Automatic annotation (TrEMBL):
Domain Hcy-binding: 3-295
Binding site residues for Zn(2+): 217, 280-281
Alphabetical keyword list: Metal-binding, Methyltransferase, Transferase, Zinc
Name this protein carries in UniProt: Homocysteine S-methyltransferase
Cofactor note: Binds 1 zinc ion per subunit.
Documented EC number(s): 2.1.1.10
Record-linked NCBIfam families: PRK09485.1
Lineage start: Bacteria, Bacillati, Actinomycetota, Actinomycetes, Micrococcales
UniProt GO BP: methionine biosynthetic process; methylation; S-methylmethionine cycle
Length: 299
């Protein structure tokens, strides 16, 4: 019998995504302070990564996102690690997520594909770095294929800040053979580059390789307007997974402000048309339980 796909599941109703991986690893005692962030834990303490995936599945997640967000060939090279090690860690990230799903006898694996800026480890994913489409295509090419070869259920293209990177990733998805969602990071209703949010989502949604489009790594109060922008661009499923609402200071590597992930907001996102809902930085299992409860109430 063919394995059930995320598209099959979405036909039955909205799906629950997991929460912040780095957040939960830090709460569990892992050191995520280096430029490699959670990727360092993937290399040094893989069992802890597996445990966090298990926690999110137990909290009600239908999709777990792999620990590959900051794993890249040049980022690992700066840390003194070779290409073979990088490839092994990319594959390990998918294998750990798959193992957790198999143990739970449920769930899908989304292989995280962070943007170029994320691998610099200094908050650069929140700004346009001025790279062109050709440069970004070359940078993403090998990593996408290594992750695809590890056989995830889909690719989670995350925290994209510019039209150029959206265009580059869409071009590189051609021939990869794994469906993807493309999620951009907005601020004040636009991309971090200042470019139109709806244009980015329309470019992504036009690809046959893209299952869903949406936003992540943004304040919760940005999400409803982003759903409206996404719906104006496409009829494809919409994915949303914001931060807790706290603000990241890349210079001091600290969070500021207070976080809130209220049930009423999750219900608002569901009613506005979001089909995959979860949390990003500073969210955890309790937030996933909230999402699962709201989505169950709507079925």
């Amino acid at each position: 019998m063919p394995r059930r796909t995320p598209a099959d599941a979405l036909a039955d109703g909205p799906l629950v995504l997991d929460g912040g991986l780095g957040t939960r690893l830090a709460e569990r005692g892992a050191d995520v302070s280096s430029a490699l962030w959670s990727a360092a834990v993937l290399a040094d303490r893989p069992e802890l990564v597996l445990d966090v995936h298990r926690e999110y599945l137990a909290a009600g997640a239908d999709v777990v996102i792999s620990a590959s967000y900051q794993v890249s060939h040049d980022g690992f090279a700066r840390a003194g690690l070779d290409r073979a090690t990088t490839d092994a860690m990319l594959a390990r990230s998918v294998e750990l997520a798959r193992r957790a799903c198999e143990e739970a006898e449920r769930g899908f694996v989304a292989a995280s594909v962070g943007p170029y800026g994320a691998t610099l480890g200094d908050g650069s994913e929140y700004r346009d770095l001025g790279l062109g489409v050709a440069e970004l295509r070359a940078w993403h090419h090998d990593r996408l294929r290594v992750l695809a070869d590890a056989a995830p259920d889909l690719l989670a293209i995350e925290t994209v800040a510019s039209l150029a990177e959206v265009e580059a990733i869409i071009a590189e998805l051609d021939g990869v053979g794994v469906p993807a969602w493309v999620s951009v990071t907005p601020a004040d209703g636009r991309l971090r580059s200042g470019e139109p949010l709806a244009e980015a989502l329309a470019i992504a949604a036009a690809s046959d390789d893209v299952l869903a489009v949406g936003v992540n790594c943004c304040p919760p109060d940005e999400v409803t307007d982003a759903i409206v922008a996404a719906r104006s661009a496409t009829s494809k499923p919409i994915v949303v997974y914001p931060n807790s609402g706290e603000r990241w200071d890349a210079a001091t590597r600290t969070w500021h402000g207070s976080g809130a992930f209220p049930e009423a907001l999750v219900r608002e996102w569901r009613d506005a048309g979001a089909a995959l809902i979860g949390g990003c930085c500073r969210t955890g299992p309790d937030d996933v339980r909230t999402v699962a409860r709201v989505l169950e109430q709507g079925r």
